[in-house]
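During the second half of the funding period, the structural biology subgroup turned its attention to how the target accommodates small molecules. The most pressing case was glycinamide ribonucleotide, which had performed well in the primary screen but for which no bound structure existed. We therefore specified the complex as follows and requested a full 3D prediction, including the ligand pose.
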Amino acid sequence: MLNVVVLISGTGSNLRALLEAIDDAERTGTPMGARVVAIGADTPEANLALATERGIPTFVVRPRDYENRAAWGDALLQEVQRFTPDLTILSGFMRLVPPAFVEALAPALLNTHPAFLPEFPGAHAVRDAMAAGATQTGATIMIVDNGVDTGPIIEQQRIPIHPEDTEATLHERIKVVERDLLIRTVQGIANGTINLKEIAA
Ligand code: GAR
């Protein structure tokens, strides 16, 4: 069984899709071989109800409670490691994690990103793609390294940008694809068809 810890900052809709896919697979007698053992956040505003309604443990580690980013990262890592995860996913976690955090968990540390990396890295990928006048963008699942969205890519897909798109409509269409990619990635890691060490090598 692949034990997964997921970190979020906001609505957690991609996480919800993953939780539902795990539940559906269980119900239909084809278990995914993965379970979410804890959900963490960097802010109490994050949608942790997703976890509590399912009886999944939660934790919040706020940067402002720590002297610096490294100390915050150490505290976050300690919380994550309490659950001895096989995989940790940053799913709409809107903060850069410090190097010690990456070193402790990578390559089993994934991030989902709403663009076709290496295009449009960073916190405003959807807005940046539109501002650049791009006609297509995408969604990417990758292994986290110490750069900003520079890690090895596991899955990605192109998504067209329509002339009538707003940032919100485009982001919503991207998330539909991201959810599929995320579920497929967790499935692949659980059943051994995706080997993170090989991808990271
Ligand atoms: C997702 O599109 C994710 O890729 C993005 O935040 C959204 C979270 O949505 N993450 C980043 O932009 C990280 N740089 P959700 O909270 O509804 O799942």
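Two results from this model are relevant to the next phase. The mean pLDDT is 97. The CA atoms of residues 142 and 153 lie 4 Å apart.
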